[in-house]
Amino acid sequence: MTSVLVVGSGGREHALAWKLSLSPRIDKLYVAPGNGGTHSIAVNVPINAANIDGLVSFAEKNKIGLTIVGPDNSLALGIVDEFQKRGLRIFGPTRAAAEIESSKVFAKRLMKEAGVPTASFHVFSDYEEALKHIRYQGAPIVVKASGLALGKGVYPCQTLAEAESALAEIMLRRIHGSAGDEVIVEEFLEGQEVSVHAFCDGKTSVLLPLAHDHKPILNGNQGKNTGGMGTIAPVHYASTDEKQFVKKQIVGLTLNALRTKKRPFTGMLYPGLIMTKDGPKALEFNARFGDPETQIYMRLLATDLLDILEACVDGTLSDLSIEWFSGYAVCVVLASKGYPDLYEKGIPITGIASADNLYGVTVFHAGTTYTDALRTSGGRVLNVTATGETLQEATRQAYKAVQRIHFDGMQYRKDIGESH
Fold first, then answer.
1. Region label for 220, one of left (φ > 0), alpha (ψ between -120 and 50) or beta (otherwise)
2. Max Cα separation, the chain?
């Protein structure tokens, strides 16, 4: 038996904790800091995910057998390095390996060096130079903040005016802070976007089923980009040959390149891809579980999650067979009014228990807190997940569950999974 700590407070962390709570090998489960939903399956620990010293001390004091890191900023701050220095087992990449997410510039240059197919790009730290390049290239074009921006630093622009506005937001108005010190301006790629996730132990990788994330806030992929408004899995955009290509030419080459640079990657590698007419190309890399992809992966995963995470940490992933349930999973995100911009907090939430009672439905909390009652505390508030033998069945159940939940100003997309 072992004690496990999950670091983070969102829907991803609730889903990870939920799956871990089903493991017969765990006797104590903690989430730091957790949210209004995690307290029912684990012990919430009031330590912020960025408080590395506090988390290390807690893990030592409570003899934590394994820590799992959810948020990107904890990884960028070097939480894995600090835990490893103290001889504590932790799932996630080191600070150096996690730079593949914390610096999009580093990731693009690594891809170019390694021969990983990606969009052509230019890097700028000067606003005027970037503006000149955008006007020269014209639209459509993509403008990205290089650093961590809560999933909101990427601007696919259809017009020159949109591109100029995006550049000003990032470099002049600094809405993403220091994440906008450098920008990447890259070619606009046409095709279906796919989320790829791979468990990695430093040398071996195992791909999860392909997923699709719906980033824009409004139906029909309109409006501002968000951290993700809903997901479906599996998707069938890729042939068997294309999946092999992704495993070897994108995941494999990237892991080799990181190893060559003395930055071996252990944890969850998550490239966002686009299926172009010329084949799969990598848009960017994340160094952790996706959110809200994790919420559907945990619904589909049949193998004990603890077994997989420990195999990654121990370098024995090649010895493990990972099993998945048949069928499909869908996640619909319920967000606060105003998200992804300013939004109110502290609004009462009702109906979750009723939604949870529906067949195949599990509701994960993201931005919630429990005080006198369950209330909103974030932009993305709840993740309503459902499974079914068909995508239509899973989608129908998810939206049936959504109808039972209420908080003032609740917004969500009504077309998750429709065009797949």
1. left
2. 61
Neighbour count for residue 219 (Cβ, 10 Å): 15
Amino acid 419: pLDDT: 61
Q: Is the pLDDT of residue 275 over 80?
A: yes
Q: What is the pLDDT of residue 239?
A: 87
CATH 1.10.101.10 for domain 120-187, yes or no, is: no
Bridge partner residues of 176 (DSSP): none
For all residues of the chain together, what is the average pLDDT? 96
Distance CA 76, CA 198 (A): 19
Rounded Cα distance between 234 and 237, Å, is: 9
**What long-range pairs does 236-242 form, CB within 8 A, spacing at least 24?**
236/210, 237/192, 237/194, 237/210, 237/212, 237/275, 238/194, 238/210, 238/275, 238/280, 242/275, 242/279, 242/280
The CATH label, of 3.30.70.270, 1.10.390.10, 3.40.190.10, 3.40.50.20, for the domain at 2-92 is 3.40.50.20
CA distances (Å), origin 201, targets 168, 196, 290, 320: 40, 16, 18, 12
For β-strands 141-145 and 183-187, DSSP reports them as: antiparallel
Which residue has 């394994």 as its token pair?
66
Round to whole Å and give the CA distance between 335 and 343: 9
Q: How far is 288 from 270, CA to CA, in rounded Å?
A: 7
CATH number attached to the domain at 192-319: 3.30.470.20
Q: What mean pLDDT comes out for the span 108-124?
A: 96
